[in-house]
Amino acid sequence: MGRNIFFIGAGNMGNAILRSLTEESVFFYDPSEELASKIDAKRTSSLDSGFLEADIVFLCVKPQVFSKISLPQSSKNPIIISVMAGVAISSLQKALKNARIVRTMPNISVVTKKGTVAIATDGVEESVLQTVESLFSKCASTVRVSENQMDAVTGLSGSGPAFVFQFIEALAMGGVKMGLPRDTAMKLALSTVSGAAEMLEKSKLNPGELTANVCSPGGTTIAGMQELENKAFRGTVMAAVEAAAKRSAELGK
Fold first, then answer.
1. Residue 1, pLDDT above cutoff 70
2. Each residue's pLDDT tens digit, 226-238
3. Rounded to an integer, what distance in angstroms lies between the CA atom of residue 71 and that of residue 48?
4. Residue 83's pLDDT is what?
5. Whole-number Å distance between alpha carbons of 79 and 99
6. Average pLDDT, stretch 130-140?
7. Which of 122, 10, 26 is nearest to 65 (CA)?
8. Of residues 163, 174, 170, the one with CA closest to residue 220
9. 57 by DSSP, 3-state: which?
């Protein structure tokens, strides 16, 4: 396609997206020798030289690092795709004057090419949005949101995989507590979560209706559900999403 795609930062997220773009001309800059040695792409000699060559730039650094970065003006006017939590488009525009900036929030599941990416549409041309969606389609599904929803997205899908990992581990530990070998318990927990997610995705029923279908009167599942309610399971998960979203907003400041 003849596009030069430059990654600033090549940590877990940047590397996962980079590796999905096999048909593109991809290069990156990261000061870490250890990270650079693990990435099968060209590493530029400097941040500036890579930026000046790029048609599309992925900003994959921590928000705290971005504030220390200074980039030159490029005659190519590249599309700038930010994956940084909390950093508003207005802040990016101050640092990258006149650039075509798109704020996104992918989650770590892009590593398995089953990620989810939210794209803020505010002030972005349709052709640019379609370009960004096309790039991410190699490793994720995409949703369009307004920028004022991005902190909520960060709390839910950005941080959500860690919450799911913890839930899966807790399920497995429950199985171990009740006498199962750990490897068997983990296999059961993984298949239970993936199967339930696929069932919900394909079903026309909502989560509450599906839950009700599993809860036989006086049965095992309703007994477990009562314990989850007693321990405020849903409220705790909601509070975790809220805390992560608030932290995203704090990072933007």
1. no
2. 999 999 999 999 9
3. 6
4. 94
5. 7
6. 94
7. 10
8. 174
9. strand
What is the Cα–Cα distance from 85 to 245, expressed in whole angstroms? 9
Q: Give CA–CA dist 95/98, Å, rounded.
A: 10
H or E stretch covering 33: helix 33-36
Amino acid present at 153: V
Please answer whether residues 87 and 252 qualify as being in contact, where contact means their C-beta atoms are separated by less than 8 angstroms: yes
88 within 8 A of 248, measured Cβ to Cβ: no
Output the 3-class SS for 156-200: HHHCHHHHHHHHHHHHHHHHHHCCCCHHHHHHHHHHHHHHHHHHH
Residues 239 and 236: their CA atoms lie apart, in Å, by 5
Residue type, 55: D
Beta strands in the chain (DSSP E): 4-8, 25-29, 42-43, 56-59, 79-82, 100-106, 115-120, 140-145
Predicted pLDDT at 150: 95
- Determine the 3-state secondary structure of 4 from DSSP: strand
Per-residue burial over 121-140, b = 16 or more CB atoms within 10 Å of its CB, e = otherwise: beebeeebbebbbebbeebb
| CB half-sphere exposure, 36, CA atoms < 13 A | 13
B/e letters for 149-165, b = 16+ CB within 10 Å, e = fewer, are: bbbbbbbbbbbbeebee
Cα angle 188, 193, 197 (rounded to 5 degrees) comes to: 145
The predicted-structure confidence for 179-188, as pLDDT tens digits, reads as follows 999 999 999 9
List the structure tokens of 245. Answer: 């979203």
